[in-house]
């Protein structure tokens, strides 16, 4: 059953780009609900009479738009229910200038009859517009929700896939909070009783027609200044999570964050791909203006250093995690420098054994350098393969670090400086008494050979 709500959806989509100083033609298609439920009572009258009165007031505001053409599509007016006919949608008055009186008269004499194919009407409305350049918009007036299995959110997606930017404003009657929330994927909600709501909508139409909407992203340091830059960032549609724009943040020739043109008809979520990432949700742009999006993103640098030995550079990866978290943020190579957000991090270097540091502080606009001890070389020799492990020996306690390869009679390893113990038993020996135990010490850049026989 339909909800007792009168909705007005304003959807705008740009068909062609236009210069800021040149006013393009504005085409506005009215999609009007004439389904049977419009006869239901509402505040002492019927929904259809409320809708007619509302449009009469709205059309007076629409007449203020210069260089505009209008058209009318109606659904639910040709065939009664039952039975339900979900193809009941038709372009009644095509685009033409100075035809608002004709549209007002057609709506005034309208008699509701059928069902509510909202999504189909929106999709078919894309074919109602000429192919010539202009700013094209849809105004949908309806008393409820889809009755033909369609979905307004899916319709918006289909329009976008055709290169049409779909953007509704939802204006409703008698919707409670949960009902209004169902339109989050469609657009912002306005109550019909809001004073001046029609003037506000017309102002938005005029602004989008005359002026280009721009934005700059200010990546702020700890002092609140937009000094951070050269970071990838992505704009998503907040409701559908569709990825819309990807940019590398740039400072222009004047040293200010660069300006980009962006569609004002959506709500955005911005992801700044720092380490870790920063998100800014619910971004609403003011059409026809320059918008500033500020994001706190103070950064410092983390450098890992390990010296070379006799011209040979040791290789190792370093895992970086937020302090106290087990989630890996980044894997950074030794002898490299990368940026991180200001904060505290846990470090794990994939040497043998692991080299760990906790609560490493990254500070604004400075470099934290981690010096990793250079390893030494260990050559293991045995007469036959066997089972065994290497342990770090510290204060009488053994800590496992490595299992020997039981398929090979010898191995070459690089270990950090320290005291170690190895336990080994040949495969063919079936008694515990044949366990071999060796203690040894590793120095940076040193070499040692252990014979396990």
Report on this model:
This protein is elongated. The chain has 453 residues and is mainly beta. Strand 18 and strand 19 form a beta hairpin. Residues 11-21 have low confidence and may be disordered. The protein is 14% helix and 41% strand. The protein has four domains: 7-210, 3-Layer(aba) Sandwich (Rossmann fold); 214-296, Immunoglobulin-like; 299-371, Immunoglobulin-like (Sandwich); 376-451, Immunoglobulin-like.
In short:
With 453 residues, this protein is mainly beta. It is 14% helix and 41% strand.
Mean pLDDT: 86
Euclidean distance between termini CA atoms? 86 Å
* Level-2 CATH architecture of the largest domain: 3-Layer(aba) Sandwich
Q: Assign the structural class, choosing from mainly alpha, mainly beta, alpha/beta, alpha+beta, or little secondary structure.
A: mainly beta
Q: What would the CATH topology of the largest domain be?
A: Rossmann fold
Stretches with pLDDT under 50, minimum 5 residues: 11-21
Helix content: 10-25%
**Shape field:** elongated
CATH C-level label of the largest domain = Alpha Beta
The main sheet orders its strands as: 6-5-2-7-1-8-9
Strand segment count? 30
Strand content: 35-45%
Spell out the CATH superfamily of the largest domain. von Willebrand factor, type A domain
Major β-sheet annotation: 7 strands, mixed
Number of helices: 6
Round the Cα radius of gyration to an integer and report it. 34 Å
Features:
Immunoglobulin-like, mainly beta, 6 helices, 453 residues, Rossmann fold, 4-stranded antiparallel sheet
Question: What's the topology here?
Answer:
Elements: E1 7-14, E2 26-33, E3 41-42, E4 45-46, H1 47-62, E5 68-75, E6 89-96, H2 100-108, H3 118-125, E7 135-142, H4 152-161, E8 170-172, H5 177-181, E9 189-191, H6 197-210, E10 214-220, E11 232-237, E12 243-248, E13 260-261, E14 267-272, E15 278-284, E16 290-296, E17 299-305, E18 317-322, E19 328-333, E20 336-341, E21 343-349, E22 355-362, E23 367-371, E24 376-381, E25 386-394, E26 397-403, E27 410-415, E28 418-426, E29 436-442, E30 447-451
Parallel strand pairs: 2-5, 2-7, 8-9, 10-16, 17-23, 24-30
Antiparallel strand pairs: 1-7, 1-8, 3-4, 5-6, 10-13, 11-12, 11-14, 14-15, 17-20, 18-19, 18-21, 21-22, 24-27, 25-26, 25-28, 28-29
Helix pairs in contact: 1-2, 3-4
């Amino acid at each position: 059953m339909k909800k007792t709500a009168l909705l007005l959806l304003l959807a705008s989509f740009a068909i062609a780009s236009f210069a800021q100083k040149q006013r393009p033609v504005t085409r506005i298609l009215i999609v009007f609900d004439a389904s049977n439920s419009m006869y239901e009572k509402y505040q002492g009258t019927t929904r259809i009479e409320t809708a007619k009165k509302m449009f009469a007031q709205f059309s007076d505001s629409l007449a203020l738009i210069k260089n505009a053409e209008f058209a009318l599509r109606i659904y639910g007016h040709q065939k009664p229910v039952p039975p339900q006919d979900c193809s009941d949608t038709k372009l009644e008055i095509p685009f033409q200038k100075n035809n608002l009186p004709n549209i007002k008269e057609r709506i005034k004499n309208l008699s509701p009859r059928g069902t509510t194919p909202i999504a189909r009407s929106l999709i078919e409305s894309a074919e109602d517009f000429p192919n010539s350049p202009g700013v094209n918009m849809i105004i949908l007036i309806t008393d409820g929700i889809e009755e033909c299995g369609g979905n307004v959110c899916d319709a918006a997606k289909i329009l976008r896939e055709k290169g049409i930017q779909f953007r509704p404003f939802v204006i409703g009657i008698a919707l409670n909070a949960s009902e209004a929330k169902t339109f989050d994927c469609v657009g912002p909600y306005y109550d019909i009783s809001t004073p001046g709501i029609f003037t506000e909508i017309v102002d938005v139409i005029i602004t989008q027609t005359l002026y280009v909407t721009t934005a700059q992203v200010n990546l702020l340091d700890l002092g609140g200044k937009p000094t951070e830059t050269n970071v990838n960032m992505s704009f998503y549609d907040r409701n559908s999570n569709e990825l819309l724009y990807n940019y590398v943040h740039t400072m222009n020739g004047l040293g200010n964050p660069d300006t980009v043109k962006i569609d004002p008809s959506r709500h955005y979520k911005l992801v700044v791909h720092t380490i870790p990432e920063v998100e800014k949700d619910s971004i609403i742009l003011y059409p026809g203006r320059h918008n500033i999006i500020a994001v706190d993103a103070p950064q410092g640098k983390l450098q890992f250093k390990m010296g070379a030995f006799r011209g040979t550079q040791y290789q190792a990866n370093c895992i970086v995690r937020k302090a106290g978290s087990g989630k890996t943020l980044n894997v950074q190579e030794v002898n490299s420098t990368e940026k991180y957000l200001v904060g505290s991090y846990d470090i794990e270097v994939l040497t043998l054994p692991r080299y760990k540091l906790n609560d490493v502080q990254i500070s604004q606009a400075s470099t934290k350098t981690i010096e990793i001890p250079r390893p030494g070389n260990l050559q293991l020799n045995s007469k036959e393969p066997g089972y065994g492990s290497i342990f770090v020996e510290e204060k009488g306690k053994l800590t496992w670090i490595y299992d020997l390869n039981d398929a090979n009679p010898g191995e070459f390893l690089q270990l950090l400086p320290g005291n170690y113990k190895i336990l080994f038993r040949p495969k063919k020996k079936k008694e515990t008494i044949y366990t071999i135990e060796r203690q040894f010490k590793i120095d940076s850049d040193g070499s040692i050979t252990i014979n396990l026989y």
